[in-house]
Write a structure and sequence with these properties.
globular; 10 helices
Length: 275
């Protein structure tokens, strides 16, 4: 008797994820309009770690080529200024969190070829220390020289993403002040300009951090949530996470309708009730 070939657990997980995305995307037309600029979150590219917060190199190349022909990729400030425009849903902002070496090596050249502006939200301690952003390898940080090279391209907006990447919901105001101050000072000293944009670690907004963030930055983004509109608070701007399981098919669906049901479920599972 011929036994059926076993499917590795990794692929079972991937099949389940993609099946769920089909269900979620089918629900999107019933959840109302998804207007406003699409502010996308990326982390790693081609890391091969199997985490949802990365994308493959091939998928990234295809995603950028598709965007180049169908959307207008703009810098963060332009998108926020035009967030109430009738055609704002044609605007896309590319944001990259933490500052991984693989983004510089594999992502930045693609963006340069297309002339696409982007925002890098930098976590400064790994850049200073050279320590990986994640335990176990495969998550080396960029260097200051690489950050300077990207700054020199004219395409990059450099934003702050704390010094040590703490969950700002779990630490006091004094610690928040120290961490953000260290990050801003390092960026100003190394690059020459203090950051004016910020993103919350893990995407979680923090009530105790909000006043500190409001004093330091012109805008702050979080992990995900409702569409960005003219009424959106510039200190709590939602973004759309791009995931490993999205590939190209679900990336396109996210750009069109946001995969809003998936986002709502993710927030509920995380017990997150922020903006």
């Amino acid at each position: 008797m011929v036994r059926p070939m076993a499917v590795p657990p990794y692929w079972l997980k991937e099949l389940a994820r993609r099946a769920s995305k089909l269900v979620f995307s089918a629900a999107d037309p019933f959840l109302g309009d998804f207007g406003g600029p699409r502010i996308l979150i990326y982390h790693q590219i081609g890391a091969g770690l199997g985490r949802q917060m990365e994308v493959t190199e091939n998928a990234f190349v295809e995603q950028m080529a598709w965007l180049a022909h169908r959307y207008q990729v703009v810098d963060l400030e332009t998108a926020l200024a035009r967030r109430g425009d009738p055609d704002a849903s044609r605007l896309v902002v590319l944001t990259f969190d933490d500052g991984y070496e693989d983004f510089y090596r594999l992502g930045f050249p693609v963006l340069s070829r297309h002339g696409m502006p982007f925002t890098l939200y930098l976590t400064t301690h790994p850049v200073e220390s050279g320590e990986p952003l994640l335990a176990g390898g495969g998550a080396d940080p960029v260097t200051w020289d690489q950050v300077e090279a990207m700054e020199g391209s004219g395409l990059m907006t450099l934003g702050a993403h704390t010094h040590r990447h703490p969950d700002l919901r779990t630490i006091g105001t004094g610690q928040i002040e120290d961490d953000l101050g260290t990050s801003d000072d390092l960026i100003a000293r190394r690059i020459g300009t203090a950051p004016t944009h910020f993103t919350y670690p893990y995407g979680w907004w923090s009530a105790q951090a909000h006043p500190v963030v409001a004093r330091r930055y012109a805008s702050a983004t979080v992990g995900s949530g409702p569409p960005v509109t003219a009424a959106t608070d510039l200190l709590a701007v939602n973004r759309i996470p791009v995931q490993l399981a999205d590939g190209v098919l679900f990336f396109k669906r996210k750009l069109r309708k946001g995969l809003q049901m998936e986002d709502r479920l993710r927030r509920r599972i995380a017990n997150y009730d922020g903006p």
